[in-house]
């Protein structure tokens, strides 16, 4: 895997962590950079294998703690259906609900944010006296690149 880093995203989360008074350790930062390096989602063990290239002593708990921190801070999302992780498109740390489009051929994940969709879901739930605490909206299919270039 070729890792290309986006220093803008890394700098952004460094600033957010400093403002919040939370510690962005070297390992947390590296896991974030690995996740941001691709449009594909990564499992914890795929991340561990990549992390071991720069930190051979890394163990599964290292990655899981980093993932927990990054999710708590709103910097990444968990793709529930594949038990994997992607970077958050609006990595500014404000809480939001996302709709993930997951390509079953290339594993790329596109994050969409739609206030209209969230409003519709909230209204539907309220009609039944239900208060939504969290959303997990994932759609599987074939992305435009894969559908126009069959493998």
TrEMBL record:
Zn(2+) binds at residues 103, 106, 143, 146. InterPro entries: FUR, Fur_C, WH-like_DNA-bd_sf, WH_DNA-bd_sf. GO terms for molecular function: DNA-binding transcription factor activity; transcription cis-regulatory region binding; zinc ion binding. One of its GO terms (biological process) is regulation of secondary metabolite biosynthetic process. It comes from the Bacteria. Belongs to the Fur family. Its cofactor is Mn(2+); Fe(2+); Zn(2+). Keywords: Cytoplasm, DNA-binding, Iron, Metal-binding, Repressor, Transcription, Transcription regulation, Zinc. This is Ferric uptake regulation protein. Its main location: cytoplasm. Fe cation binds at residue 135. It comes from Vibrio palustris. Homodimer. Binds 1 Mn(2+) or Fe(2+) ion per subunit.
């Amino acid at each position: 895997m070729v890792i290309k880093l986006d220093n803008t995203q890394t700098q952004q989360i460094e600033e957010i962590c400093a403002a919040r008074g939370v510690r962005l350790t070297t390992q947390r930062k590296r896991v974030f950079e690995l996740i941001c390096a691709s449009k594909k989602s990564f499992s914890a063990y795929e991340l561990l294998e990549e992390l071991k290239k720069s930190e051979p002593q890394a163990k599964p708990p290292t990655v899981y703690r980093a993932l927990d921190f990054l999710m708590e801070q709103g910097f990444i999302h968990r793709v529930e259906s594949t038990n994997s992780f992607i970077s958050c498109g609006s990595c500014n740390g404000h809480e939001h609900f996302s709709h993930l489009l997951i390509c079953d051929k290339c594993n790329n994940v596109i994050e969409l944010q739609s206030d209209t969709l969230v409003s519709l879901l909230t209204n539907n739930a309220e009609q039944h006296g239900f208060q939504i605490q969290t959303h997990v909206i994932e759609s599987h299919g074939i992305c435009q690149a894969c559908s126009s270039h069959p493998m």
